[in-house]
Amino acid sequence: MELNAVKYKIYPTLLNSYDRFEKGYIDANELINRINRVPVPQTEAQRKGSSFEEAVIKGTDEELFDAAILAQVRALLPRPMMKTQVYCEYQLGNVLLYGYVDVLGRMLAADIKTTQKYQAGCYAKSHQNFYLPALRSKGIKSLRYIITDFTEVYHEEYDHTLDFSHQEMQINAFCAFLEEHRGIITDRRIFGN
Prior knowledge:
Order of helices and strands: EHHHHEEEHEEH
Radius of gyration: 17 Å
Distance between the termini: 23 Å
CATH topology: Lambda Exonuclease, Chain A
Largest sheet: 6 strands, mixed
Shape: globular
Number of domains: 1
Number of strands: 6
Helix content: 25-40%
CATH architecture: Alpha-Beta Complex
């Protein structure tokens, strides 16, 4: 089976930004800035999320977080942890989806998320779910999102039976958006360069 030439290189966070654009949470200019990787100051919530992930996986500054929450999150990680921050890529037509999954076990991958307010099932349509087919050759059978609002710990788990039709439609719409705005996109890497 011959793969199509890569025309677009896209990462899940960018597709999740496009989802926010479709829902009216950000405007076209904000989306273009994200595509062009215009630097924006990291928010306190983003800083706390990154710091929490480091505390869970590496034990760095874990005293800044509730020990019970850390223990609950660690209990949901794959055992043994084979690798952390594992690069993944999956080609869908002429689109190369790429990114990093937080933790890789023998048959389970996990991604740690922090949020202010959790809504059950919110990761069912996440573009990070493409890590599943990307990691199939490594023996990964499911992807577990481990989520905390720093009061409770939640998790969602998805396997290879997941329906990707919503994500695929959104990817096609995003590629059309890219073509429509090609003239003002300065970060040409998104076009497979």
